[in-house]
Amino acid sequence: MKKLLFGFIILTTCSLLISSCNKEDSADVNQDTIYTVYELFYNANSDKTVAIARLRFGSITGTLLEANAPAGVTFNGDALPYSALYSGHAKEYAGKLTGGTFVYTNTQSVVYTNAVPSMDTIGHPATFDTIFKSQANVYAWNGSALSTGERANLFVGSWTWGQDAIFFAGAGQSDIVMGVTQLSNLALGTSTIYADRVHEVGLAQPTPEGGTIRTRYRPVNATVQVVP
Question: What's the whole-number average pLDDT of the chain?
Answer without folding.
Answer: 90
